[in-house]
Amino acid sequence: MTGFLKSAKLFLSTKMNTFQGSNTGQSSTVGIKENEKPPDSLGLSSPDSLALKRKNNQLAKVEPLPKLGSFFLELEVVSDINKCFSLWQELSPQKTLFDTWEFRYAFYLGYRFQPHFLLLKSPYENLALLPLWFDKDEKKYVWFGSAWQEEVRFFSKEPKYIPLLLSLAPSPLLLNAISQESVNLVGDRVKFEPDESKYILNLENITSHEDYLMTIKKNTRHNLRKDFRRIERQNPQIIINRFSDLDNLIALAKTRFSQKGKEADWEDPRRIETFRQVIKLDSKSYQIRMITVKIGEKIAGVDLICLLNNTYFTVKCGYNVAEFPGIGNFINLLEIDDAISLGGMKKIDFLQNNYQWKSRLFEAIPLFQYGK
Question: Quick one: which of 78, 79, 282, 339 is 20 to 30 A from 119 by CA?
Fold first, then answer.
């Protein structure tokens, strides 16, 4: 390691200051109870639950670069969900869907894995935060909200604290889908490995899906138009924001995966609960949108979308490909027109994983991972 870490001498005691607070983060109940409010405002955190408990301290004494002088850094492990929320609001960059508390909190409500937030602080301020939880299924530490998150950014007031925080993180650890921006901030002080790319469509200079089609190869353009017209000839009914169709989305996805001899993530009831909460937490940071395509009396396809910071995130989908071939391409082109019609949308984020087709249609954005 170089820079800040190379010039520092670190002395750690063997015990951690674990912030337990209330039992909120320990509950095994799935979903929000009728009288349970998500910690989405600072007013919900009582002074008692947020009071720092000074037992079993872990202190990191650092002798940093000469200009900074000698001072103490404290590493605090936070597991109380209300304290986690407060730290998140203070330190998250809040740039993408995956930076928002509500989207991550929906996964917490679905899985109920205990938060393990590593807070690095001086006597004067909070400096950096590594929001983790212990995944009991994978038996390793991952991002708070699971490995489903992507384009993840480090929460740090200065880049120099990131290598130190990673060096103090528990193992086994896997941090996936790290943004290029975060990797650039750290430079060669931490060894990152390539992860699967994500895919986007820049909407600048595009006024309809036909403009987009003119930017791709002729054969691909021909095939997409053919699929679009095939569905269009069947007089599809386009239904916006009928959120009860999440059940149809799930059923279609399960059937489609089964047809391919695979198991959908929807087989896990915790994943279903998670996305019910994603919908329920709408409008606190992101906005939810759903597109349903109905042909005759049958649901041909359903897409769940999140909107945030002029970006149209295609989050989940389910298609009846067996009865309506080309429905996936139809909805992709429909979503381009839908995003444009909303006004102000600068890009569509088709998320991570190629699935053997995204790389032919959209721009790949590299992502990285770190493990130990």
Answer: 282
